[in-house]
Design goal:
Helices cover 30% and strands 27% of the residues. The chain is of the alpha+beta class and 238 residues long. The chain has one domain: Imidazole glycerol phosphate dehydratase, domain 1 (Ribosomal Protein S5, domain 2, 2-Layer Sandwich). It has a 5-stranded mixed sheet with strand order 1-2-5-4-3, with helices on one face. Strands 6-7-11-8 form a 4-stranded mixed sheet, covered by helices on one side. A hairpin with a 4-residue loop joins β3 (56-58) and β4. The longest helix has 20 residues, at 200-219.
Length: 238
């Protein structure tokens, strides 16, 4: 069985995903362990001429740069990456002249593929994982809870109960659909519930932050009991 190297360190879990269809072009680089992305993408002119860097953040521990063409979706993905401890680069060219459905769906499918690829990037990638994660996240009057299992058994229960048709340019129904798509592609069981809240922006953001915390816990490695071992009675996760 593959284990950590002689220094007790594991290789960063990274993935690059390109999803190209007649409806969208999605490109993602992800490292679920944070840090700098090893091959910073070179953007076509049509993607690099934007001056609004509202979903860009760089620090010693993370690099986040997201531009989907849908501002509120950028904001949610930024919150997810930041609080999950990920380094994440996302670009999408989608058929927004139709609506936001294809772009949102394909971004979450690609992101789910990226997470699963990270967890299967090497034979040791899924060793010693907590596997289960849970988190609560408040945002002013809103409070959300998320519980996840890195089970390779995709299933999602998502209760956001949004009141508005849109937040910004994103249809609120696409928040739920996006999370369902992510679960399917990532092979993750997850339950995401907004427990209370009056403001739909706050409800959505607290839900994504709760999911981020749960994923961060689940993807972290155990120390002590179970360290370096497969957290499954089957002996395998992915």
């Amino acid at each position: 069985m593959a284990t950590a190297n002689s220094m007790g360190e594991y290789a960063p879990r990274k993935a690059t995903i390109d999803r190209d269809t007649k409806e969208t072009q999605v490109k993602i680089q992800l490292c679920i362990d944070g840090g700098q992305l090893s091959n910073p993408p070179i953007e076509p002119i049509s993607w690099s001429d934007r001056t609004n860097k509202h979903a860009f953040q760089e620090s010693k521990s993370q690099y986040v740069d997201i531009d989907t063409g849908i501002g509120f979706l950028d904001h949610m993905l930024h919150a997810l990456a930041k609080h999950a401890g990920w380094s994440l680069w996302v670009r999408c060219h989608g058929d927004l002249h139709i609506d936001d459905h294809h772009s949102t769906e394909d971004i979450f499918l690609a992101l789910g593929n990226a997470v699963q690829s990270c967890l299967t990037s090497t034979p040791a990638a899924s060793l010693g994982l907590n596997r289960f994660g849970h988190s609560y996240a408040p945002l002013d009057e809103a409070l959300s809870r998320a519980v996840v299992d890195l089970s390779n058994r995709p299933f999602a229960v998502v209760n956001l109960e949004m009141q508005r048709e849109k937040v910004g340019e994103l249809s609120t129904e696409m928040l739920t659909h996006g999370l369902l798509s992510f679960s399917q592609a990532a092979g993750v069981t997850m339950h995401v519930d907004v427990l209370r809240g009056d403001n739909d922006h706050h409800r959505a953001e607290s839900a994504f932050k709760a999911l981020a915390g749960a994923l961060r816990m689940a993807c972290a490695r155990r120390t002590g009991v179970g360290e370096g071992e497969m957290e499954s009675t089957k002996g395998v996760l992915y």
